[in-house]
């Protein structure tokens, strides 16, 4: 890790990768960096002050909102609105997309979609949580309020995506389509410092991550794949190791570094899966592809799905290339369930 290469400097250095963006993306990522520090500070106080627990309301998806879900949502929105690069945001915690009203924001070229706090049900018990973000150029004319079309673009139109993981250390990992880079937060100097340049995920791995309690409700192909993971074939490193934290960001981050696969298939209670295409799956798909891996809904590449709704869910299989290809084969061979 180099404390002499901070995220801010790195972004400026890479600015020439985006001749059309001339510093705008740098300013946008600066908003994210700042909000991440504020949320990090608050999360670190969890348990000491009364900031954990539910607010007693549900979001549009019927999930209980935690105080920190709303805190993170507000801070990211405020940091983005304070600069002039984003004309509107969509969030897990907002029913509809939010258009920023400030005059300068109307001339902004980008929209951002986010899961402000991922894994928030884990926060009371001191388990890693995260923030996930996805950035697009708007398709509606600059100077007008953003439209639904700006937010419902397929993942392969993303210009940047990333996540912050608030874990044993806090990290920001992002891509702008030129590799994946990771920065570790040094609280003593208040900076994210370059720790993982050009991250590549192993071609295959030996970790599978799935909520196996739902086994009985999985499609047949997924059940068979799980049995395949558990078979003893020492020359192929099987049985694999099962690891599941229940925070997508944390499970994804571990598998990205070590090699593995994360699965959230459809179940009886969640017929299209649980994870949200726009602000959970697409950003992770962009990152994993940039790191040499794959992201699929079991049949199709995640980033080619044309979204129809803001909070749309999708089955999600993401990780090392060979492992995602393998589960796709199992699903293809067992099509009727
Ligand atoms: P969120 O906290 O943003 O609602 O996301 C929770 C998601 C994801 O982080 C995690 O991988 C998954 O839900 C866990 O779901 P199960 O508890 O059904 O395994
Ligand atoms: Mn989430
Ligand atoms: Mn969330």
UniProtKB/TrEMBL annotation:
Catalyses which reaction(s): beta-D-fructose 1,6-bisphosphate + H2O = beta-D-fructose 6-phosphate + phosphate
The protein's name in its UniProt record: Fructose-1,6-bisphosphatase class 1
Keyword check for Repressor: no
Pfam families: FBPase, FBPase_C
Domain of life: Bacteria
UniProt family annotation: Belongs to the FBPase class 1 family.
Residues that bind Mg(2+) 1: 92, 115, 117
Domain Fructose-1-6-bisphosphatase class 1 C-terminal, residue spans: 202-331
Binding site for substrate: 118-121, 211, 244, 262-264, 274
Pathway: Carbohydrate biosynthesis; Calvin cycle
Keyword Cytoplasm (UniProt): yes
Quaternary structure annotation from Swiss-Prot or TrEMBL: Homotetramer.
Localization annotation: Cytoplasm
Cofactor(s) the protein needs: Mg(2+)
Species, as recorded: Vibrio algarum
Keyword set, alphabetical order: Carbohydrate metabolism, Cytoplasm, Hydrolase, Magnesium, Metal-binding
CDD domains in the cross-refs: FBPase
């Amino acid at each position: 890790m180099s404390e002499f290469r901070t995220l801010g400097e790195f972004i400026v250095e890479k600015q020439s990768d985006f001749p059309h963006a001339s510093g705008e993306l740098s300013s946008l990522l600066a908003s994210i960096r700042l909000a991440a520090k504020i949320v990090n500070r608050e999360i670190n106080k969890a348990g000491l002050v009364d900031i954990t627990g539910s607010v007693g309301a549900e979001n549009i998806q019927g999930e209980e909102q935690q105080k920190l879900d709303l805190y993170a949502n507000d801070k990211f929105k405020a940091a983005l609105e304070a600069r002039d690069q984003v004309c509107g945001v969509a969030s897990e915690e907002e029913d509809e997309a939010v258009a920023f009203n400030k005059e300068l924001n109307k001339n902004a070229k980008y929209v951002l979609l986010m899961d402000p706090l991922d894994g928030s049900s884990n926060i009371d018990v001191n388990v890693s949580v995260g923030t996930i973000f996805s950035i697009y150029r708007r398709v509606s004319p600059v100077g007008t309020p953003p439209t639904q079309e700006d937010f419902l673009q397929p993942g392969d139109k993303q210009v940047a995506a990333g996540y912050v993981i608030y874990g044993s250390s806090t990290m920001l990992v992002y891509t702008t389509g030129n590799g994946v880079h990771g920065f570790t937060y040094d609280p003593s100097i208040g900076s994210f410092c370059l720790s993982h340049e050009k991250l590549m995920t192993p071609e295959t791995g030996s970790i599978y991550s799935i909520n196996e309690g739902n086994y009985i409700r999985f499609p047949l192909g997924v059940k068979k794949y799980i049995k395949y993971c558990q078979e003893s074939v020492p020359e192929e490193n099987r049985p694999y190791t099962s690891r599941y934290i229940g925070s997508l960001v944390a499970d994804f981050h571990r598998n990205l570094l070590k090699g593995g696969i994360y699965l959230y298939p459809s179940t009886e209670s969640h017929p299209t899966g649980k994870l949200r295409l726009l602000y959970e799956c697409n950003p992770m798909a962009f990152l994993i592809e940039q790191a040499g891996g794959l992201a699929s809904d079991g049949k199709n590449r995640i980033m080619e799905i044309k979204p129809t709704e803001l909070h749309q869910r999708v089955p999600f299989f993401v990780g090392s290339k060979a492992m995602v290809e393998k589960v796709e084969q199992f699903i293809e061979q067992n099509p009727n369930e």
